[in-house]
């Protein structure tokens, strides 16, 4: 990434090393696995393929930062004096992940806008490969091409996938899985295997960040008259992204960057999260809208913010209970037709790891994983990494 444009600006000189004891090395068992029916026991998972590669280099290790490595890294960097590195891809996938929750919560209301059929269509990508050797990354990208052919507006595919100067191949696969998850109420997916074969660094160009802003405007096409969630959301996203663009142009508003996150109440730890980072957490995984909640009075009492006394808290951005920070990743069910044997699998993609640079800077990572459910197949370690 040495040729990627970037800008680093100092906000304070108070750097602190990251306490690695608070960031265990990532393990896929840490992912919250959805169940088909509420109350069911989540299936055990074994990793078939993932972009989370092991490393002995401390700065290349993928660490687990709770269930959302983007939001939690931003909050930790702010509250614990760490540097922060953000790419347009991080912002876009955070948005697409939230957009996925929204589409799945209102899939029937939005059906006529997205597809021209009832129920769910079956989409299948077939390759001549074995279970352990199949090119699942290529198959995932191919699946999004099938989605494009089966929705009213094929351009949604390229809109959903990141394509910035900072975008890696892994980022494209992450975007593809997120698109699949967004459309999972309209499609059943299967892969068929046939016999045979304290600073902030903003990466990317000014055009990347302009493109990101342009991408966000299309969210409004998916508004519902009774909720107006998309127009409300873009109204919150736009001023935040404008500040990113100002910063990339060399005019960072350091006061604004220090409003990235704030914790309110909670005794020994933050109970509510405020600050502009919460515009990337306006939906729960079930599509519950948090965006209107900009003032909280637990038990009828005003907040004691940071020990400064009791008073009402009003914010330009949503207040989110820290227990309601949504996963930064999408997931979906997929069937692997292994030479006639159907195997249940799950795909995950988005923000679920973070890397530590120079001992004091957090870099949220975009990753994807394909896992087998309730399988006794032992996948050799060297086969699992992309």
Write structural notes for this entry.
With 386 residues, the protein is of the alpha/beta class. It has one domain (6-384). It is built from 10 helices and 14 strands. Strands 1, 2, 3, 4, 5, 6, 12, 13 and 14 form a 9-stranded mixed β-sheet that branches. A 3-stranded antiparallel β-sheet has the order 7-8-11, with helices on one face. It has a two-stranded antiparallel ribbon with strand order 9-10. Helix 2 runs parallel beside helix 7, helix 4 (136-149) crosses helix 6 and helix 7 (206-217) packs antiparallel against helix 8. The longest helix has 20 residues, at 229-248.
Q: What are the low-pLDDT stretches, counting only 5+ consecutive residues below 50? A: 266-270, 296-312
Secondary structure class reads: alpha/beta
CA-CA gap between termini:
18 Å
Q: Beta fraction of the residues? A: 15-25%
Protein name: DUF4419 domain-containing protein
Organism: Heterostelium pallidum (strain ATCC 26659 / Pp 5 / PN500)
InterPro entries: DUF4419
SSE layout:
Blueprint: E1 6-10, E2 45-50, H1 69-80, E3 83-86, H2 88-105, H3 107-114, E4 121-128, H4 136-149, H5 156-160, H6 169-182, E5 187-194, E6 199-203, H7 206-217, H8 229-248, H9 254-257, E7 262-264, E8 272-274, E9 303-304, E10 310-311, E11 320-321, E12 329-338, E13 341-357, E14 361-373, H10 381-384
Parallel strand pairs: 3-6, 3-14, 4-5, 5-12
Antiparallel strand pairs: 1-6, 2-14, 7-8, 8-11, 9-10, 12-13, 13-14
Helix pairs in contact: 2-6, 2-7, 4-6, 7-8
Summarize the entry for a quick read.
With 386 residues, the chain is an alpha/beta fold.
